Amino acid sequence: MLTIFGGIGLFLLGMTMLTNGLKEVAGEALKRWLNTFTKGTFTAIITGALMTVLVQSSTATTLLTIGFVSAGLLTFLQSIGVIIGANIGSTSTGWIISLIGFKISLQTMSLPIIGVGVFMSLIAPNDIKKFGSVLAGFGLLFLGIDMLQQGMGSAQDLISFESLPADSFISIILLILIGLVMTVIMQASSAAMAATLTALFAGAIDFNQAAYLVIGQNIGTTATALFAAIGASVSAKRTAMTHFLFNAITAVFVTIGFTYFIKVAKWITERIAGEFDQTLALAIFHTMFSVIGMLIFLPFMKVFANVLMKIIPERENALTKNLDDSLIQVPSVAIYVSYKTLRDIMMHLTSALKLLIAEKKVTVEYEKMMLEVEEAIDQTRDFLNLVQSTSSKERHQHICILHTLDHLSRLIKVLREQQKVEAIYFQEKLMIKWQAILTDITDVLHDDDKLLEISIILEQTSQEMAQERRIKRAEYFERSVTSEKALEEAVSKVEALLWIDRLVYHYWRATARMAEFQALEQEVK
To answer: 70-101 pLDDT, tens per residue?
Structure first.
């Protein structure tokens, strides 16, 4: 048993290294592919399958898909096609193991590959090191399979599946549950599939038992996404539910027609190999599972997407709860509600920035707050697009709101830049000063009468920051020339100054526009 556990551990380690290495090698290309080749249903499926084959991880493909849906680069309907393709692509591991894993001496092959891969990671140039991780992961993957083969040979006496013949309803359900639990425990369907193939090759289980285990593993592989979706975005929840329903519904169909699907798998195997090869037949059965699911879902994709969107509706963003479309008929009210919404957004954004400065890193809470702000800004912009101002004062106020929205959008872009954490460390004194000002702003930002006072303080701060930037910029570069400071550090400090300068400037301009709006509001009264 220890050998089996060790083999599974090596396989998982190898799969992780292989996946991470491939993502590093082809990460940007994968993003371009996903954005370019998912315009239609079939291209989305093919893209999902190819990406999963390349990175050897359907989870990586799914997570990237979630990110693109959240960013608005993919529709939810397109993401369903990518997920279906990812399911098909994930079956490639079974093909690799069945075609290569049991045909050659794995230990003889894997050890040199691991050695070359590790040495590449250590001593190769930086642009080649990442390929070392891919090689080492590939070698560890097959070394793990070799250990599984050794362990399964002796495990037959300890683990007996004879009491679970695949010819009774209770045994079938138990086998499916065992497959499901295997994947949940291992947190990787590829590892569960490798263990099943190895047990089948060693004679510990028969072909029908292995096939039922595979059905359970296909359901169990959705557990990771389901767990990850708890407390996550609506897009993540919908994607996870799509993955689960796709595999669960397919499992029901395949289980009902099990006898016929097994016959087809055996027939295809005999056509390919000339004889019945049970490990190859199991890989074919695994692929058939995903292809059958695709054929079931394709005609009903739009209906399926609409049902899921109703089951998991968009969550109401607390920042935009007042943006009621019925207010559009009364422009003055709609504009004022937009103003209050932007003020709430700025308060939320200020709290997020204070958290970033205090923690000196991007935390989960900070990221959650930023996503809420970004979503609120998008919803406010959509709302304002429907508002048509009539009087000159309304138009003036409308323009103030649009300028505020623009500066808040630019603030978000500044806060999304890489320099944000570096600025906190390279310009610690300035950030401490800025943190104190933010605290003062937070205390009075809800008070409309204080907006003019805040904007004046921020204007002075912005001017001081600009002066500080001009003086210190020259000072840093002068030091680097005399070798008192490294040029790289000087550049980093200057970039940090520029980042802070833009941050304060957009804060000031957003507040000034809100103060202008409020002054107009006072005139109306």
So the answer is: 444 567 777 888 888 888 888 887 787 777 75
Query: What letters, b where the CB count within 10 A reaches 16 and e where it falls short, cover 31-57?
Result: eebbeebbeebebbbbbbbbbbbbbbb
Token representation of residue 38: 């998912």
Q: What is the pTM of this model?
A: 0.54
Query: Is residue 74 helix, strand or coil?
Result: coil
Phi, psi (degrees; rounded to nearest 5) at 483: 65, 10
- Residue 278 pLDDT more than 80? yes
- Residue 341 burial (10 A CB sphere; 0-12, 13-18, 19+): buried
Phi, psi of 40 (to 5 degrees): -115, 170
Of the given ranges (56-60, 287-291, 511-515), which has the lowest mean pLDDT? 56-60
Can you say how many angstroms the Cα of residue 214 is from the centroid of all Cα atoms in its chain?
Answer: 26
As a whole number of angstroms, the distance between CA 51 and CA 247 comes to: 19
Residue whose C-alpha is closest to residue 315's, from 242, 235, 254, 374: 235
Which string of b and e fits 209-231 if b means at least 16 CB within 10 Å?
bbbbbbbbbbbbbbbbbeebbee
Contacts of 219 (CB under 8 A, 6+ apart): 176, 179, 180, 183, 244, 247, 248, 251
pLDDT > 70: percent of the chain: 72
